[in-house]
Amino acid sequence: MILLRRLLGDVLRRQRQRQGRTLREVSSSARVSLGYLSEVERGQKEASSELLSAICDALDVRMSELMREVSDELALAELAQSAQATQSVPTSVRPMLGTVSVTGVPPERVTIKAPAEAVDVVAA
């Protein structure tokens, strides 16, 4: 099962770490306890919209950007979960599949077209 609070926490943590900021700095700026912010980042607590707004303000990140990144993570997690559930690619076809690595490209810009029975989708 994909937990939205865990994906949201992962994205918040990455945003904070990209800025080289500590939990203490962000919690102070957002006026939320350090322990609670830590629990949100670890996906153990559901953050209210008010709390998310305060954290986004503290990180100087638009909530829409945060939610877009969470949405992208969710889409990848759903694809990975779906691929694991179906495992529809025959073993004899797998060696014919190439590996593609795309970095630095927004997910909405990537389109993969191939016969459905010959595609493996794995999200790391």
Automatic annotation (TrEMBL):
InterPro entries membership: Cro/C1-type_HTH, Lambda_DNA-bd_dom_sf, TransReg_Diox_bact_type
Keyword terms: DNA-binding
Record-level Gene Ontology MF annotations: DNA binding; DNA-binding transcription factor activity
Domain HTH cro/C1-type: 12-66
SMART domains documented for this protein: HTH_XRE (SM00530)
Gene3D superfamilies: lambda repressor-like DNA-binding domains
GO cellular component, one term: cytosol
Keyword DNA-binding carried by entry: yes
Superkingdom of origin organism: Bacteria
Pfam family, one: HTH_3
PANTHER family with a match to the protein in the record: HTH-TYPE TRANSCRIPTIONAL REGULATOR, METHYLPHOSPHONATE SYNTHASE
Descriptive protein name: Helix-turn-helix domain-containing protein
